């Protein structure tokens, strides 16, 4: 499969210690990119980066001081910045009527505030020569998702933020787009392992009905990496404010 090359592209990836962020850290250096992975989980993040030919720095995406200092250090390592891929996020389950203030604070701090802080930190380095920001949205933020009330709200905020910043930062040649993925990762395996047999059967039935292409989540290397590589390349420089649904048709056009 032909995948867009990223030769010389200087890229920061958040959430690089697990999930789709890990997949990006493992793939982008092989495509020619210079990568700094940042994550709160230091041991796994550092190990994955070393195995992949990337650099690693610890960060708390919900803390402005941590984000600003880490991004400054990352840009120094890279010798500049072309792309931010902001993959860090959490997705705890909670029915709407049981969602607590503590859960709201935790999820929106990581997912929504974290998006704003990392985007602002990247923009400070991108606005001179231009560049690209790729945030992670979700179908949950567009159409809702049962038992993911607070997560869905946080991703709705990511969508609104990204489209607003795309309109404001375009004059600086900075584009912002979003990926709404439905991809099978080890984190998803863990989620499945924690379900009861009844819940798992119901979940699989739901997926079968709502993912037109194959009825299940996509593959990181075959379905996800090629799309992200294009959106991190110079070929995507005239695309902004868009949700790119890598989800087998779950979201479609809504």
UniProtKB/TrEMBL annotation:
Domain of life: Bacteria
Gene3D superfamilies: NAD(P)-binding Rossmann-like Domain
GO molecular function: oxidoreductase activity, acting on the CH-OH group of donors, NAD or NADP as acceptor
Keywords, sorted A to Z: Oxidoreductase
Keyword S-adenosyl-L-methionine: no
KW Zinc-finger (keyword) present: no
Pfam families, alphabetized: adh_short_C2 (PF13561)
CDD domains (alphabetical): SDR_c
Family assignment from sequence similarity: Belongs to the short-chain dehydrogenases/reductases (SDR) family.
Protein name: NAD(P)-dependent dehydrogenase (Short-subunit alcohol dehydrogenase family)
């Amino acid at each position: 499969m032909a995948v867009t090359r990223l030769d010389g592209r200087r890229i920061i990836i958040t959430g690089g210690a697990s999930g789709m962020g890990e997949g990006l850290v493992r793939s982008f250096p092989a495509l020619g990119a210079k990568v700094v992975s940042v994550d709160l989980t230091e041991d796994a993040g550092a190990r994955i980066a070393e195995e992949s030919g990337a650099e690693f720095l610890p960060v708390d995406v919900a803390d402005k001081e941590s984000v600003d200092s880490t991004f400054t250090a990352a840009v120094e390592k890279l010798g500049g910045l072309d792309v931010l891929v902001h993959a860090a996020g959490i997705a705890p389950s909670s029915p709407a009527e049981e969602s607590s203030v503590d859960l709201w604070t935790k999820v929106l701090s990581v997912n929504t505030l974290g998006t704003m802080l990392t985007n602002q930190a990247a923009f400070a380095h991108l606005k001179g020569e231009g560049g690209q920001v790729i945030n992670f949205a979700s179908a949950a933020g567009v159409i809702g998702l049962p038992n993911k009330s607070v997560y869905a709200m946080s991703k709705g905020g990511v969508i609104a933020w990204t489209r607003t910043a795309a309109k404001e930062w375009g004059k600086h040649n900075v584009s912002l787009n979003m990926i709404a993925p439905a991809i099978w990762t080890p984190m998803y395996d863990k989620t499945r392992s924690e379900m009861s047999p009844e819940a798992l059967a119901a979940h699989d039935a739901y997926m079968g009905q709502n993912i037109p292409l194959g009825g299940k989540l996509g593959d990181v290397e075959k379905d996800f990496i090629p799309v992200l590589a294009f959106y991190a390349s110079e070929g995507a420089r005239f695309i902004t404010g868009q949700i790119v649904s890598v989800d087998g048709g779950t979201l479609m056009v809504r």
